[in-house]
Amino acid sequence: METEHNEVPQKKKNIWELVSGIAFLGLGGYRLYSHFLTEVTVSNLRLLFAVAFVGFGIYSLYKYYK
């Protein structure tokens, strides 16, 4: 008896998801670091964008490694 192996071909990973994830995570993390751990104050809008960048960076890295 032969058993069939139904292998699903893996989807090709998009390198730009990895690059954008690292870039957005780094930029947002730097903005949050500079706001909370140094004397530099940023506006609320920039702080909101920094949180959004971190979120998008995490999402891009999740999509890449999924």
Structure commentary:
- The chain has helices at residues 15-37, 44-65.
- By secondary structure, it is mainly α.
- The longest helix has 23 residues, at 15-37.
- The model has no long low-confidence stretch (mean pLDDT 89).
- The protein is rod-shaped, with a radius of gyration of 19 Å.
- The helix content, as a percent range, equals 55-70%
The number of helical runs is 2
Q: How many separate domains make up the residues?
A: 1
Could you give a short account of the major beta sheet? none
Supply database-style keywords.
66 residues, mainly alpha
What is the topological layout?
Layout: H1 15-37, H2 44-65
Helix pairs in contact: 1-2
What is shown here, in short?
The chain has 66 residues and is mainly α.
